[in-house]
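Lab notebook: predicted structure, single chain.

Context: the supervisor wants predicted structures on file for every construct in the current expression panel, including those that have not yet been purified. This is the next one on the list. No modifications to the sequence; it matches the entry in the shared construct table.
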Amino acid sequence: MDDAIKVAGGATANADFEKINLAYELSDGEKINIPSIFDEETEYTMSSDVKNAKVNINKATASELETINGVGPALAEKIVAYRSANGRFATVEDLKNVSGIGEKKYEAIKDEVVVK
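Prediction complete. Output recorded below exactly as produced.
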């Protein structure tokens, strides 16, 4: 999604990126709507495809990784550091190699992530 926004010429100053997942991978022809900071709704309703999008652990920033349930700032930084030191994740299961991700944590987050 982040790349699509850049290709489209960028977002306006009113875009509220706190309410969307910039790591979401768009499909060809898919349309997105970036909410405004002036929207009065506290929760932006996205299409089910975008709302349920998986985070690409090979491309996501630390803040994007924090959108995964159970991943806080420290663990997100460990994932990014591991990826920087060891290269791309070949499989989602490779997350178990990251310090702080044991079997229980892996089981809790595995369905929210993808490698591409």
